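$ run holo --ligand "uridine-5'-diphosphate" --emit tokens
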Amino acid sequence: MSRAIVLGGGGFVGSHLADRLLREGMDVVVVDSFLTGRKKNLAHLAGNQRFRLVEHDICQPIPVTGPADVVFNMASPASPMDYARMPLETLEVGSAGTRNALDLARRAGATLVHASTSEVYGDPLQHPQKESYFGNVNPVGPRACYDEAKRYAEAIVTSYARVHGTKVQLARIFNTYGPRMRVDDGRVIPAFAAQAIAGEDFTVFGDGSQTRSFCYVDDLVEGFLVLWKKGDGMPINLGNEGEFTLLELADVMRRVAGSGGKVRSTRPLPENDPKQRRPDLTRARTILGWEPKVPLEQGLRPTIAYFREELGRA
Ligand code: UDP
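-- output --
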């Protein structure tokens, strides 16, 4: 019987990953402190004999024993609003939490698959972003707690591989969306979806010319599985190449939801907010044979349906 441990498995991406691993026939242990994750993301797994939940903060040594095949480290606040609110917790989980994740993987004889982020590129001066780009990060700005913690995490993950021979894989996740995002997490997809559903104006920060590329969560989860099996131990971008300005995103959202108001610029672009972002997927394609399959319009349908339920407007 194979066994996976998902740190941060109560979160948006982690809970989808746990579901997928269970469907693959694995035993799954989820560890989550529910700082930003939610128990309701796992409620449907209650009673599943192959699922176990350990409520625990991974900044403390992780109390899971026994062998495992893989540890996925998905634990961290990831929305800019969340990490602005909890900078010290974000730094701690990226540093102490990642070290504890590595120690757990070593003890269990498992591969550590670590969720890094496109934020390691900061406000990028290279476009699209290749893994070889070292980034443009302000170490003392409002995003530093997340960006630098994730950069440190990449450093300690690759150092464990060098020093201890730990098997590791690193995914740099670009903007991802889907059901189970918190509707109030501050990110643009839940914000715009809620506004479209309510028929309200879209709140755009800055002039809306900044770009993002949005990956549907099922594509990302598939990428994580392939990365575990086929990665080369160095960072690989996982995301979608479809790049949209926020003005374009508002149009797509209005079309898919069938409602929504005008675009309204409500505040200047936040400090250090990346002006453009799109993954170069050459390494994902050549090393993993992976690429995303779900276009934005298609992925927004179940996402908007989920938010309708959450908002009681189904
Ligand atoms: N944004 C916006 N309106 C919102 C929320 C976000 O215009 O209600 C912008 C934000 O300034 C950024 C982009 O949308 O330029 C994506 O923000 P998000 O928080 O989703 O993630 P990020 O890619 O910045 O981590």
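-- notes --
The chain has nine helices and 13 strands.
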